[in-house]
Amino acid sequence: MQRNIISALVAALVLCSASCKKFLDEKSMTKIDESQVYSDLDLVETSLKGIYANWKAIRTDEQGLIMMMGTDEIQQGAFQMKSDPNKGGLDRFDANLNSTLNHIANQWNIRWPLVNEAAKIVRGLDREEVAPGTREAELLGEASFVRGFIDFQLAMYWGEIPIRDLDREAELGFRRQPLKDVWAFIIADLQRAAENCPATNDPGRATSGAAWAMLGKAYMSAPESTGLRDFSKAAECFEKMMGGYSLVPYKDLWDYNKPNTPEVILEFQFSPVYPNNNKLQFQIGSRAVQAYFGDGCYYSGYDKIVPTRYAYSSVDSGGVWEEGDLRREESIRYDFTYYGETPTLDPISWEDLGDDHDELLPHVKKYEDFRTDKHTDNKINNMWNSGKNIPVLRLGDIKLCYAECLNEMDRTAEAVAVVNEVRARAWGGVLPADKQWTMMSREAFRTAIMDERIRELFAENWRRIDLIRTGKYVELVKARNKWAAQSGTIQEFHTRLPVPDTEMKLNGDITPADQNQGYQ
Amino acid sequence: MLHVMHVRITSGMQVLFLVIMVILGGIAPVFAQGGRITGTVTDLKGEPLPGVTVKLAGTQTGTVTDSRGAFALSAGVETGTLELSFLGFETQTVPFTGAAPLNIKMKQATANVDEVVVVGARMKKTDLTGAVASVDSKTLLERPVTNINQALQGNAAGVFISSGTRPSDDATIRIRGTNTINAGASPIFVVDGVVMENNQGGFNAVNVNDVASVQVLKDASATALYGSRGANGVVVITTKKGRRRGGDGLVTYDSWAGFSSFTRMPKTMNAEQLAALRIDAYANGYMKDHPDANRQEYIDNVLLGSNIAFSDQEFEALNNKRSYNWLDQVTRTGFQQNHALSFSGGSDRGTFYLSLGYAGVKGVVQETKQDKYTGRFNAEYNVKKWLKVGTNTGFTRTNDDIPSDDVYGKALNANPLLDYAPYRDPATRYAPDYLTIYYRSHGEQNNNDFNPFNSLLIQRDRNRNRVTTANYIDITPLKGLDIRSSYSLDYGTQEWFEFTPHNIQEAVRHYNGDARAKHERWSDTYWQWDNTITYNTTIAYDHKLTALVGSSSSKRKSSYTKAQGDRFASDDLSYYDLGGAAAIDKSVLGSDFYAYSLLSFLGRVNYSYKDKYMLTATARYDGSSRFAEGHRWGLFPSVSAAWNINREDFLKTSSLFSQLKLRAGYGVVGNQDISNYAYQTLYGSRVDNGNALLANDGRRGNPDITWEKQQQANIGLDMGFFRSRLNITADFFYINNDNLLLNRSLATTTGYTQEWENIGRVNNKGMEFSVTGDIIQQKNLNWTVSGNISFDKNTVKQLYGDATVLYNTYENVIQREGNIFLGQSLHTIYTLQSGGIAQESNRAEWENLNYNGKTVSLGDLFARDISGPAGKPDGIVDQYDRTIVAKTDPKFYGGFSTNLSYKAFSLNAMFTYSYGAKKISSYYEGLINSIGESMASVDLLDRWTPENTNTDIPRVIANTSYNRYNPSDLDHSIQDASFLRLSALTLSYNLPEHLLGAWKLNNLRLYVTGSNLFCITPYKGMDPETGDYGYPPVKMFVFGLNVGF
Predict the structure, then answer these.
(1) pTM (predicted TM-score)
(2) Neighbour-count burial of A169, counting CB atoms closer than 10 A to its CB (0-12 exposed, 13-18 middle, 19+ buried)
């Protein structure tokens, strides 16, 4: 009997040893392993859609506004400037604008994981045997688009950036690469995207049209020092895609009942239900309105950004707006009267607002979402839920870009005609004769188009890039941004942002010596 | 008859301070006749005790009592001491002079701690060769505590406990400091052989009254058998068993009840002082913007004449000279009670122990309540001569009512200038003006300052159930061969129900004015199957050998479900009807599942020669599912030896040493306590506009990670002097922890934010001493003093590659704590150094520096320019000037106690202390950063003003854009967390034994205890030990009763 017991135990041990390997195999049950994702094209596409979903975060909440700050069309609200001197550095260009500024690090840190995820898909699919038109090719195109688009922004804002070509990771490391290489890489991505993306796609996803548009922007924007700037190539790109889109009545672009209009090339998809809301109105509405009518008024908010005087004033008051331009009322809220009641500053006068107060001065209007208002039946009653779609690329922008190229190619007359197409829409389809642009010098066009872009694209996140690529950043910000003008400390080096301190501390390939000039 | 409560010291040998029992009527005139000693042994009731071992102290001479309890012994000496031991009774020593027959009464033990069950194998404690600290049930019950960790506090060298601050919190425990970086640093708890983790209140759920003993295994050789999880020490808990003897069993009842209240709150400003502070700040801000203005005029006309600085409500309090203490309004005197009833007994064939317990807490913060019900059944039975089966089974049910954290949090920081009456009045409390509290005026920043009275309406109920059962079968087929198989199950569930009514600010702010109900359920199943074969033999009388081989497998499976809905027909439905949630698109569902498993093979050999030399060698081979295949297995050997020097001939005759034992051990232990699936790069669900997507979760999987390995060396010495009246234990350890498992922040250019890696080495060395002395040992008067002290010091010896620092980033910011610097302690505070206050006298030090956006003027704090990109001061104060300003490890810590008894009374005081640790007090930083728009420290009364320049408290400035250095931006307010605490003072009365016999009682003790009566510390936050989170420390007065019959 005793022997039996011992044998049984020995047998049990042996049995157990055999099943050891299996016994210790534990894999996540609530998440999928990377190897599994990349072994199945369906899952690759699902994760690509995940990248798009995360990409939208760049245009969400306060972080969706940072790159609009510190320009000549938008600045931070007065109360924000008073209460947060660190963030105030983004408009004051004082010493608070440095590599430890959290908001800048955040802009950097929300972009790189997207670049890398897209890079994984590109690495997996970028093979010679991938035939154009196949699903693999389309996914490759989309991933290339995402990486190209975000790298484009990173390179505009920071200059030299690491190149995330995963096949060359050993060679490239995580160093900042020469601008020429960076822009060549961006252009190659967008070229591949243009060739492979599908012509039509689900709303919010890249198409060949979007890729040609971005490739055109890349050719316009590549720093001249790289030798890659090429307006004729840019114009060619735009010509390849513009025919697929048409201008719509300007107000339709901001109507939540008309998402993804024929004008839209790429539009981020939101809804007024958490977590699909963009929370922008919460940040940019008027604080005086909030104090007066509460969160249930769809244009109340917290003044995180407001238009500069230049961007909200009419031409005769030293601003950009001309008589009859329909875009003005769609872009900027001047009147805060709410169901017959006009708010005052009284509820916030205790804040000792001072001379700079701007709570009831014009505010950004494009992101207002009436569905969140207490007068609807939606029971949302809080503008924090604002969730209209956000256009990223649209024909109005591309037409103006195309006009710019024509002007640079010394085809100013054609350029003027294209601008007039855009302006005609702004005046309801028929452009009054006195509002028609007429032949002008190339330089005059350059100046005029920058104002036209404010009118057409106000608060659509392109302004910083426009100012940087045209070399006008410091000059125009200093003149038109109230806080930059007050402080008077903006310098040429402020055109770029500092590489975040945290990146330098965690990335052995970027040392303090590699920091952008002026921030070292 | 006097009973000295004994105190245990930390030693592998475990010397008891023996109870001296003077036998009433048993002392007769001395005879000296041939040195023959006779006597009888009975229990307290006079029943004879057969089988008691009677031994002449310090010799091998001994005998056993016969069936009538009688014994006779040839002593050869005329005076000496007898040692009597009998399982289930307290061991006692009886001095004798002469040969008169002795009548010895033995007392039933309430605890039996001679044995330790280590992975299924029993060991005598005296055979242990490693570093072990023990605490027995008597010590545990000396203080009214509700969990094991609290009970251990200050009682064991090398064990550092931080108790939870809320009744619903769990205490944390660290053994020998922290060796690891961010793999888990908590020891494991082994309850009757079942490895328990602290999830869902795990080991805190064990009823302290059921515990027979707690052993803290500290070094590698002691923890070797738990190798896979022993890196941070092992706490072995043995629950009480019945006694294996005929006759009556034992019934005990232990009870205490008492009151508690907050103690040691930092001093804050009253309404008037706070108003003055705010006026000063505003006037300073105004003068900054208008240097030529008239300050006093501005104060009189603008600040006191408008609502810029003060609301009308605040003016009213100011004019009425009222100051409102909100915290008092949401707190009360707490009440705690504990009752435990146990029954135990046994026969030749088996034993049993059954207990029931209840512990109730009515917390200091209103609506805080805890009810804990426990039960235990331990039994063992010899089915056959060669077959024994047994079970140790316990259950715990804990119900908590946990108020919203905002009740305490918001009341603590509420404005003393605000009258709370309308906030509490049912007629006004839901009006928009009273949904939030504020300073100065309602504004954006007040949106989250919920009315704490309304927060009391949030219902949060937690129920935890836990059943732990260890069942074994023990076969002895041959003499000396023991085959044991034990299967244990630890099953726990937790439920969380929460309801937020629709009309309070929490709902208005976060849930669009809808009520919210939330259900969460956790379920945890853990099983463990241990099989061991042990062979015991004695060769040639002197060589004792024990060999063990075994295997252990275990698996934990956990699941979690969450369901949450908004908008209900009535707040009266509370959280009961989730189906009534109308806001379907806001509903939230969630779940989680995880599992992990461990598999081990182990072998151990114990050898001892003449009980003088002892050797233990252990090897384990462990596999963990937390690592990828190919990296799963680790081999963990250990060896230790002990030498009982006092048993050597040259010391045998010495009366100096009653014990002298030298221990030495070396071993390797593993740590795998990291998050599950860290070796995988994972893609989780990403829900977007109704689409089911996948997205990377930010963690880079690392398939190469494997066991963290600690090489531990320990040398210990146990010394007993003067017949054990003085006992000293000393241990010295040296630990090198390699392949540290670190959750590292990654630069986002990699595409990820974090990754687990095996990185570098941390060295930890230290020493521990404990001393117990019976200073006075007389018939009626006894005084025992004991104490322990621990020193440990850790140093980061190596990181990856040639890296010298690993930064801890959170939300794009490098944190003050959690960074790891080569050559430094693991626990540092990294920030800017304060240069003090900018004064005229030190103008040269601060005036010409560039503060990177900060402004420094007279009266402000300024930071020092210590370094720059080139490694030397560069005139700019920025990130290059952050340095290690302090470390949070104590230089030494421990506890000491004194126990004075006179006749039936005894007075016991228990102190804990810690010295040299620095700590960030977030609460105090909030108080000292105040500009009068939040609760402020009274330290700000001494703030810098042009008239009061001789101070280290900066001036205040507000209502302007002024980027000053707040005290918390610098090392200015880092606190010294040294402390000396009287953690318990107990006065007790033991019913004398002659009365016990008359009343047929085994023991009766009445006591009163004051807990946490004082704490001497320079720390300015809530508590130097527990920090500022949760509730402040409480002081408690308790009346208790222990009775057995």
Answers:
(1) 0.85
(2) middle
